[in-house]
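Example record

One chain of 275 residues, shown exactly as stored in the release files.
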Amino acid sequence: MKNPSLRRPGTSIRIFCLGRHYHIQQVGFSLVLIILLSGGCCPKIDHFLAYEPVPVHISPENISFTDQFYKENQIGASVQRVAAFANPVEKVHNDTLYKIRNRDHHLTAYYLESEVPAMDRTVLISNQFTNKKDQKIVVDTRPIWILVPTQKLYPNQHRPPRKLSHFVCYSIRQSGGGSTEPVRLRDEFGPHSPVSVGRPMYLCNPATKFHNHRKFRPYNKRDHLVWYQVEEEFQQQVKLENQMDSLKLDLRKISWLGVPSTKKELDPTTPQENP
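Predicted structure tokens for this chain:
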């Protein structure tokens, strides 16, 4: 987001964010700061690089959640096994560097099983790979993953993550494809070879999770993640801890790149049956 210059009260300020211009009426210096710091127009979450582990099953845990697809009623689901572990990652794309905001933010993806029927929902996403324009995608609204904030204990022990939301993720059935240009990535495990980004695979909504009589609310409801397919062989052992479990994982490859995104719904009340 480009920093606007502050002018006298009563003038308009233009903010550029994700390909859109926002005009905010400046009433006073303090009010403008409140508007800018509220995170109203841009995602404030990091990019993430997800590593697929050797299959690890856990004792099934029952949870429920609400998100922007399921606002009225809690959706019950069973957490079955680990899908991925994700580090925050620094990305260089089109000569633009996207730095890591919080190095203590890590995520563990768990597969979900639920009785939600297969339904399609059409949404618009916008991020750096859509050239900062709205891209139409069709999402299967059966939840497939839950992303759980995680403390990484080994290697390089981190503090527990603060102000990191849970996310519920859905498979993208139709999209306009991915980026055609390679990106350079660097995370805690070092720099990686330039990778080509494939098509978008999953859309993740910020979610409220209910587990063991506790309620975990999202910190920013505008933050979404879209996971794009990437491939690179990689081996690393990690130890981690979160609300679900303490785990030791043997990571075997890089599989997905999570990109901060915004989302608009086109048909929030009329999902279509999934053929």
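Notes: Residues 1-40 have pLDDT under 50 and may be disordered.
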